[in-house]
Design a protein that fits this description.
By secondary structure, the protein is an all-alpha fold. It has helices at residues 3-26, 28-35, 56-73, 77-106, 111-129, 141-144, 148-168, 175-193, 197-217, 226-247, 253-259, 261-277, 290-302, 311-335, 339-362, 372-377. The longest helix has 30 residues, at 77-106. The model is unreliable at 365-385 (pLDDT under 50).
């Protein structure tokens, strides 16, 4: 697939996503009673104005209608030959998206139900598209993946975890959608390198839809992604990663993991912190995510608070984190094509996360090897807001 065609597909998705985002924002006086995020006091809330949190509708419209619009205006045989697979993946995404958007409107859908819906979406994709990972380049574990039921369930949990990871980092303007855009672009480059047209098209659609939404979401936060958008984008990118591995033996799982490392590390460390350090439910919300600590420890000290312009601090979080993630994803594309290179990039990002997280929690560097878990559990070491 030509790069120009990929860009055209992405621009079509971006145009539709942007149009729907604008419509949602300008029509909020009719649906705001149900679509606004009225609770501004939660531990993970860092915005001062109620705005629509149903941006996922614009993202889904960008992917679906963007593809259809492109096919009508610029007929391409290579697009048409892959359109059926795109539509099948869209159909598979419906349980995850519906559960998320229902939470956005009702605020009553539990985390367990949303995760179950995402697992259901992954199972449907496994059936419709054969999106089942049978090799993860982990010695010993790959033998288990030769058993089809095991491979299907592992894939389902991996995809559900990926979708949840995007939802977890969705706390500040532009953060989760920018990370999704970066991962889609990086996976698309790998797909282009190995000549996988379907993966490239899926990545272009995701990146375009994310970009169109981002224009209203960043920096001022006129529209939020919401659970529907986060679960949909997370599911879509996770399935792209799965399809890239399933359809291309030359791509190693460590490179794919390196590209998607930041949200994966965040969700794994969040589970560890909540379950084993704080002895709480793994799904219990808290204000100790990396992006939250960046806001509390870095942004609030660098950016002056101005009444009525609280979005400036909010938007700065993505400005701090996104360039680092983009750099790591780019390096993963360049050197991750070998297994050793992929493993090194994963370990490097895990080490950087651990070091920076520990620095933010403690407020200072330590020369001894005290466990970061002690610092995470000690709330008194966090400066008051």
């Amino acid at each position: 697939m030509l790069v120009s065609e990929m860009i055209e597909v992405g621009l079509a998705a971006a145009a539709v996503s942007f149009l729907f985002s604008v419509l949602i924002v300008f029509s909020q006086k009719w649906h705001g009673k149900h679509s606004h995020d009225h609770d501004l006091t939660g531990v993970q809330k860092f915005h001062g104005t109620a705005v629509p949190r149903i941006g996922g509708i614009a993202v889904v419209a960008g992917v679906l209608l963007g593809l259809l619009a492109f096919m009508l205006v610029f007929p391409r045989a290579i697009i048409e030959s892959n359109a059926r697979s795109v539509l099948l993946l869209m159909a598979a995404s419906l349980p995850a998206f519906v559960a998320g958007i229902a939470e956005d409107f009702t605020k009553t859908v539990s985390v367990k139900i949303r995760l179950s819906a995402t697992i259901c979406s992954a199972l449907i994709a496994s059936y419709l598209l054969g999106a089942t990972v049978d090799q993860l380049d982990i010695w010993g574990f790959d033998a288990l993946l030769t058993i089809t039921p095991v491979a299907v369930m592992v894939t389902a949990f991996v995809v559900a975890g990926g979708a949840n990871a995007i939802n977890i980092i969705d706390g500040f303007n532009g953060l989760s959608v920018s990370i999704s855009l970066i991962m889609a672009c990086a996976l698309g480059v790998v797909g282009w390198q190995v000549g996988d047209d379907l993966v490239v098209i899926l990545c272009a659609l995701a990146a375009g839809a994310a970009l169109g939404f981002l224009m209203l979401n960043y920096p001022a936060g006129k529209l939020f992604l919401g659970d529907g958008g986060a679960y949909f984008l997370g599911f879509w990118v996770a399935e792209i990663a799965v399809l890239l591995l399933v359809r291309n033996d030359s791509v190693n799982a460590w490179q794919v993991l390196a590209i998607c490392a930041y949200p994966v590390i965040e969700v794994l460390f969040s589970i560890y912190r909540r379950r084993f350090v704080k002895k709480r439910s793994a799904g219990a919300p808290d204000a100790l995510h990396l992006h939250t600590l960046v806001y509390r420890r870095v942004v609030t000290r660098l950016v002056e608070f101005v009444p009525g312009k609280d979005w400036r601090r909010n938007a700065t979080v993505a400005f701090v984190i996104v360039p680092v993630v983009a750099l790591m994803a780019s390096c993963s594309v360049l050197v991750g094509h070998t297994m050793i290179g992929g493993i090194v990039m994963v370990l490097l990002q895990a080490a950087l996360y651990w070091a920076y997280y520990g620095r933010l929690v403690r407020g200072r560097w330590r020369r001894n090897r005290a466990r970061c878990a002690d610092a995470v559990g000690a709330k008194t070491r966090l400066d008051p807001l």
